[in-house]
Amino acid sequence: MSGTPAVVLLSGGVDSATAAAIAKQAGFAVHALSFRYGQRHTCEIEAARRVASFLKSSSHLVIDFDLRAIGGSALTDHIDVPKSRSAAAISQGIPVTYVPARNTIFLSFGLALAERIGANDIFFGANQLEYSGYPDCREEYIRAFEALANLATKAGVEGESRLRIHAPLLHMTKAAIITKGIELGVDYGLTWSCYDPSQDGRACGLCDSCQLRVQGFNQAGAVDPISYVERTS
């Protein structure tokens, strides 16, 4: 499998960085794909560049499009990012940080790139255990998109190959993900998770994503190397 191309959706966060490291460990040549889609936390793009470089990715493509025209999410619209929510609140319902159809759009771009470079594998850092409210992070969604992908491509229709979507983190806790990444040598100081960073470039420490990250590092018994404005334990 050494050198076999795989597309990896790389946001620059803990999950996508770990998924990319898993792909690399499996012997794939990583072709990283990131998106500048009008998100308020655009610093994640630089994090993705750092991670792609650190993992010696074969390529890294950043695609620009603007979901602010559609809105409907705290990440792309004039909606406050929720702060200081309890673990119970985070685990219930679909949060306002959900971006309509975002993962379907991301995977569609990933499918197009995979078809162009002759890759049969797409890696995706989805996690349904700690983000169960996101409908596009569920296993049934991923398998349905995989089926669609094999109906929608030239290679699939002609029977030349079958596309596989890998979601290796799907049923892992954040602590388990971090532990796995540390085992693989991931430098989490290069990553970014915060939805609402401060003007001086620090993570807020209070949004859902920051809280899950901090909790994950604490439970993994590891030190989170990034800086926070406020940090919950």
Secondary-structure-derived class: alpha/beta
| Rg from Cα | 17 Å
Topology as H/E string?
A: EHEHEHHEHHEHH
Low-confidence segments, given as residue ranges, are none
CATH fold-level name:
Rossmann fold
CATH class: Alpha Beta
Distance between the termini: 42 Å
Our estimate of the beta-strand percent is: 5-15%
The total domain count is: 1
Largest beta-sheet details: 5 strands, parallel
- Overall, the morphology is globular
Short summary:
The chain is α/β, with parallel strands linked by helices and about 230 residues long. It contains eight helices and five strands. Strands 3-2-1-4-5 form a five-stranded parallel β-sheet, with helices on both faces.
Describe the protein's topology.
Layout: E1 4-9, H1 14-25, E2 28-36, H2 43-54, E3 59-64, H3 87-90, H4 102-117, E4 121-123, H5 139-152, H6 154-157, E5 164-166, H7 174-183, H8 208-220
Parallel strand pairs: 1-2, 1-4, 2-3, 4-5
